[in-house]
Amino acid sequence: MYSIVFVDDENQVRKTIISRIPWNDLGFEIIGEAENGLEAIDIINEKSPDLVITDIKMPYLDGLDLIKAIKEINPAISVIILSGHDEFSYARKAITLGVDEYVLKPINRDEFIELLIKLKKNLDYKFKSINDKIELNKLYNSVIPQLKQQLINEIYLGKYEENKDKISKYDLYQNKDYYICVVIDTDVEKDNLILLKFNQVLDHFFESSPIILRSILNNQIVLTFSYKCMGDRTLEKRLFEKRTFKRIDDIKSYLTFYTKVSFYIGVSQIIESFYDLDKAYIQCNVALNYKPYYEDETIFYIKDLECEYLIKLSEDSADSLIDNLLTSIKLSNSGDVEMELDALFSAETGLDPNEVQELLYRIISSLSNLTISYQLEYKKYSSIFSQINKLTTLSKIVPFLKNICISINKDICKKRESSNVKFVEKAKMLIEQNYFDKNFNLDSICEVLGVSNSYFSSTFKKETKIAFTNALTLSRIEHSKHLLESGDYKTYQVSDKVGFSDSNYFSFCFKKLENVSPTAYRKQFNKS
């Protein structure tokens, strides 16, 4: 079943067409409706449809501009244009933008059904070519030679010394200035065909820009983006980060559209040496540990989630069991913390007293670093850490450690909740300070806060139950009400003063939220 978003500013026309077509029988379902292009963009971003059917003449953002926006969001989305304009210039422009069909109003029901049947066949073919198992296997075996594949994996695992001679034989972009590592993981039961499917989609994605390291390691797809500076290193570093995140967003759209499989993307911070790719790979997987905390998120950027101190702690840890314990303390409930601690000590049975003391020292050292990095109360934990040195048997040590770990876990949870509240309050303050700026948007607020768009959007919505764009619109409308009440400005002047680029769109938003037009609101206020 292919999903459709239907866009037409004439409500009756839209409802009539939707009611007259047996969409489900033809293999389609309507998942969203919009009465203008700006509304449509929000729905398309949120629901990622397979097909958009849109009128060409609409307020605020017409069909042609909407198509441009769709192709930026995801070029794979199919588009049908509906138009009452039998003009060659419209059709020609629509074709250059990659429209699948151009249909004149009034629509002939039978002809439109035939068109949908044809379009479904095209979509079936497109998806079949992506999912064909034989082609996937052939492509996988031919694109990445086995030896180079293995070498790339050795690099991610930190095995440089034994592979120096081999590395020098391949152009693996060792001489770049900046690198960002990306890990794509899925919760679906591990199946090579799923990874092959992902790889096939990525082949299409990177067709025009193949300069990237790509590998399959531990049932994950690993990518590395790189960049060579030509001028100002600080400026170009920020530019590289911004461009890379745009490509990661595009990868997310491609994989969502073509695979219909749930997946997650872990992203490292920028590293400045090819020989630190193993650390970047660790960072990606540490970032993916945050999946349970951000259930609706797909992209996890380590820089958004952990401070530099914690990132270094993760890189330097030599014991996966201690790593698992620290992850549970940071993210899980007390039951999981106890389970990880039991696993750690049960795996170390048979150690002599000196080895137990060494393990204990490493755990305490890691826990101490954790309390420092999260800025927890120093006095509370310094005294506890000193007490544990007096314990001599595992039967006393383990319960004592459990209490410490659970206490740290609870304090970190409180700290994170408090941090999120402060983060959102700062975002709200920035909205109030910049609502009048027409250029103030998601990109600009994330630039000020120093976080990625995906992290900001998910955190803001999680804490406020409303999307950032809606919150900004609400703020603008609230401020517009005061200006309307003053009676000093005309509607188009109010629109301009509260950050709207189009006074008609301002009136549309105002009426949608207040159930009256700006003019009617002003009259009601004057009467009262």
Give me the secondary-structure category.
Answer: alpha/beta
* Beta-strand percent range: 5-15%
| Integer-rounded radius of gyration | 28 Å
Tell me about the biggest sheet?
A: 5 strands, parallel
Extract low-pLDDT stretches. Answer: none
The total of helices stands at 24
Number of E strands: 10
Quick synopsis:
The protein is of the alpha/beta class and 528 residues long. It has 24 helices and 10 strands.
Plain-language structure description:
- This protein is α/β, with parallel strands linked by helices and 528 residues long.
- 61% of the residues lie in helices and 11% in strands.
- The chain has helices at residues 11-20, 37-47, 63-73, 88-96, 109-131, 133-143, 146-156, 164-169, 192-205, 233-259, 277-288, 302-305, 308-316, 320-331, 334-346, 353-373, 378-388, 394-434, 442-449, 453-464, 468-486, 491-497, 503-514, 518-527, and strands at 2-7, 28-34, 51-55, 78-83, 101-104, 178-185, 213-217, 220-227, 264-267, 299-301.
- The protein has a 5-stranded parallel sheet, with helices on both faces. A 5-stranded mixed sheet has the order 7-8-6-9-10, with helices on both faces.
- The two termini are 53 Å apart.
- The mean pLDDT is 84.
